[in-house]
Design brief:
Layout lengths: L5 E7 L2 E3 L2 E5 L2 E7 L5 E7 L2 E8 L6 E5 L3 E7 L6 E7 L21 E9 L4 E2 L8 E2 L2 E9 L23
Parallel strand pairs: 1-4, 3-9
Antiparallel strand pairs: 1-2, 4-7, 5-6, 5-8, 8-9, 10-13, 11-12
Amino acid sequence: MPTRLQSELALSGCQMVPRIQWAPLGTSLILVSRDNARHHLHAYRGNNTVFEADISPDTPPARRPLVIPGLYRINCDRHLWERAWIYVSAHDSVALTDAQGRFTIKNVPVGLYRLRAWHEGWQKKSGSRDGRLEFVPIQDSREISVRENENTEVLFDTLTSPHEDTPAN
């Protein structure tokens, strides 16, 4: 019997945990409440709704399949400060940075690649229609060459804002 991939997004203390994560394509996202509040989660890719789910302490966890690759923004429609990001990809050459901004991607075959860094940003953008505080995302991409038996180091020091009308997918 094939193993079903699962990832969890928990609501705890009116926060989504983890705030940022990666999930392989085809993963089932398990949405679970660990606080006493009622939540209405709304997942988007760009400006398109992917799914919605009501989550509360008295309901069992909800399962939502992640079958479209790209960057998902998950908001709580009841708590404007609650947000999480999930990057869904068909490959595992993905990394989240540590507290110092470092990352490692292991077992990358020799070859040429485009490496992309993304951050939700910290510059305030106009608020959304519902009054949620929005930020301008920043990103950068680099062509890199992976060589046999060598570490490849990349410094992303010029993250900039993409055009505001272009979703970072």
